[in-house]
């Protein structure tokens, strides 16, 4: 997760991502992360890919478009 992402709205963090950027978010927020990535992508013409990494206890979000 970005250094200040814990104090920033998750939606804002995802919205501020650049193409090719990958962020990691604590696995406890899996449902929220996937929902926000989908909503931000649809409303802004972007595409995100999420993947769960249980061994690292994170969900990774990558902006692909």
Textual characterization of the structure:
The structure is a single chain. The chain is an alpha+beta fold and 65 residues long. Helix content is 32%, strand content 26%. The protein contains 2 helices and 3 strands; from the N terminus they run H-E-H-E-E. The chain has a 3-stranded antiparallel beta sheet with strand order 1-3-2, with helices on one face. Strand 2 (48-53) and strand 3 form a beta hairpin. The longest helix is centred in the middle third of the chain and has 15 residues, at 30-44. The chain starts with 9 loop residues before the first helix and ends with a strand. The mean pLDDT is 89.
Topology (SSEs and partners):
Blueprint (H helix, E strand, L loop, with lengths): L9 H6 L6 E5 L3 H15 L3 E6 L4 E6 L2
Antiparallel strand pairs: 1-3, 2-3
